[in-house]
Design brief:
alpha+beta; 6 strands
Length: 140
Amino acid sequence: MAEPYSVRVTVRGYETDVQGHLNQAVYINYAEHARWSLLQAAGITQAGLVGRGVGPVALETTIRYKRELLAGDEVEVTCEFEWGGGKTFRIRQEIRKADGTVAAEITAVGGLLNLRERKLIAEPDTVFKELAADPSPFGL
């Protein structure tokens, strides 16, 4: 199996809380950054999505915090899409420290919204495949 798509991020001081830990909300920002980077790597832009009349939506996000992150830490944020059919898909992500230690596990359920009808599209993997210049980052 291929390695999951990933991006590197450096924890910035202004992202930390009073204890010096990465603020909980920033984990979601890092996960979202990795997701949009994956779309970009596949050749999908926000303009392309809007032009097609669709947009990705988050339906559920769960974060499991495993190790603290501090300002200056270099991390890798992974992103893997799982397709099961139907209107939704699952995204599995990890935030790993430079030494490989998993700092957080993030799982999300998403969908692709028809922007005019405001309803989820059936088989979003098909639409992503059609929009992508290279669908391989999606595992398609």
